Amino acid sequence: MVFASKGGLFPAISLVAALLGAVGVAHAELPLCNSATPNRLIVEIDGLRTTEGQLAITLYGDDPSRFLQRGGSLGVHRQSVEPPVSRVCIALSAPGTYALTVYQDVNHDGAFNRTIFSPTEPWGLSNDPPTFLGIPAYNRVKFATHAGENTIHIRMRFPKH
Question: How far is residue 137's CA from residue 58's CA, in Å, rounded to a whole number?
Fold first, then answer.
């Protein structure tokens, strides 16, 4: 959903709405890796500027209809922020196709804060797709994993003040 006006598009609204689709819904906690984890996803979150708040990392499975939908994620992991790069190892149930969203909950309120026009907290998506025309399709954000260890980098984007 992209909102149009005489002046153009307001994709930030729809992106924020989509990233918020899961906020406020009870989520399963994503399982983290241990020494016996056979399928691992190392998530490296780049470009963090401050230790304020916590990171909310949301994992989606291989169902485009559930991507960014309320209750559509496989789970969420929250952790402290360690600039400039924070890392987490998520235990995957199996190799497959996944998508990730991340936001930095700067004020610890458990929500991805925004104005009517844009996010007020840092955020990122797997594959770092362009968002100037609205929410990227699942096929722009999805990535494949294989058996064993996999790594993905998420570049944080920041609100324009």
Answer: 16
